[in-house]
Amino acid sequence: MALTQAGSTGDHWSSRSAFILAAVGAAVGLGNIWRFPTLAGENGGGAFVLVYIGFVILLGLPLVLSEILLGRAGGEDAIGSVRNVAVHSKRSELWKGVGALQILAGFLILSFYSVVAGWVINYVFVAGEDWFGALFSGAPFSVAFAGETQEQITGRMGDLFASPGKLILLHAIFMGATIWIVASGVSDGIEKAAKWLMPTFFVLLVIVTTYGAFTGEFAQAVKFLFTPDFSKLNPIALNEALGQALFSLSLAAGGLLTYGAYITRDVNLAPTAAMIAVADTLVAILAGLMIFPIVFAVGLDPAAGPALIFQTLPIAFSSMPAGSLIGLVFFVLIFFAALTSSISLLEGPTAWVIDRFRIRRPIAAIMVGLVAFGIGVICALGYNILSDVRPLAFWDVFAENDILDALDGVTGKIMLPLGAFLVAIFTGWMADRRLIEQQTGLDGGMFMLWRFLVAWLCPIAVGLVLLLGLVPGLLGD
Ligand code: PFF
């Protein structure tokens, strides 16, 4: 039994495939193409990838199902849905705090996500300029960044960071696009955007991966990504892998709870959740197989950190055949992925504002988007005017982080694991078992297995990793 038929914002996906595209769009984003290869590179490759996949299967997938089913059963924004299910299950209304934590996490992620997406837009322009320049000079398959030294190419990132105006403008362009899509509505905005952007994204991804496979060091990349070296794993890497699994699947940030409320009753949730998790993980691995052959082809460092796609790859493109064209395609595909994710981040808090204050969608989207934009501006200033600021200097784990990294750290390492932990406890122990069973569509043994993972494994594993990550000395290392 669903408690209500529709989200109180009155919206619905027009079909199951529309929901899947939108949810895969939410999941596939900067997390897959920027963060996953970066973390895999920094943590030695194979072992990290293996742990990551383990987390996705054992923790991520059961939680994706939990969140979309809570959303559909509750039928409102993230806070309202959890409250509805809690009340129906004769539990305290205070459980709605789980929804509130998620909405806050999603809102904070949106604010810095848009800044990073702004960097991507910058590189779309840079690569685009190169390509069109080459096209008009009669040599379309020229290299990117022609005539520039490695230092000059790397320096572009520094130049961008030194310019608050440029960072803020690019951030504004991205946030503006996000607001516009969310303001247009669930089926006219979010669904339409996903329908166009996601298939295009997949085609572009396959093009660049195939290019890397033929022109780069594919075998070396495969070895790097799939040969585990467990000596590289430590509690911090485990915490990073879990945070990344949650972030990449869009868990605990209000997006899935909110999208879940727009799913119609006839959709079978379990296979749908599996499709989202599989598609997201495949894209992350494909992104690794797209990036590392190119990085290895020119003998660059896979552990370059966040600069991997903004500095290392442009250097690689500059010495590869058709590098300017591939560079352009690469940054456009990241931009598409980022946009379909940011709309889900904005939709969570927007749906809540619509429900809570009974205001129209466009106004709500603009209001929420503007506040997130403001926080993003502070993050952008953290690279120049406020570059000395270390907001969490008092906290060992985050002491060195600049403003954007601090926000990324607190959301990824604390709020997402905590939100996931609470969803697991709520779904596994608090929510009415009959309601849950009906919503999953799982029967017998599969339901027992899912419930075991959600009620036992998720809280224990997520709780432990959360603790280990925050108190690195706990294992005596
Ligand atoms: N899953 C997105 C990514 O991998 O880039 C980020 C994200 C989107 C996180 C939506 C949370 C969310 F609700």
UniProtKB/TrEMBL annotation:
Membrane topology: Multi-pass membrane protein
Residue ranges of the TM segments: 18-34, 46-65, 98-121, 167-186, 198-221, 241-262, 274-300, 320-343, 363-386, 414-431, 452-475
Subcellular localization, as worded in the UniProt entry: Membrane
UniProt keyword terms in alphabetical order: Membrane, Transmembrane, Transmembrane helix, Transport
Pfam family, one: SNF
InterPro entries linked to this entry: Na/ntran_symport (IPR000175), SNS_sf (IPR037272), YocR/YhdH-like (IPR047218)
Gene Ontology, cellular component aspect: membrane
PANTHER family named in the record: TRANSPORTER
Name of the protein described by the UniProt record: Sodium-dependent transporter
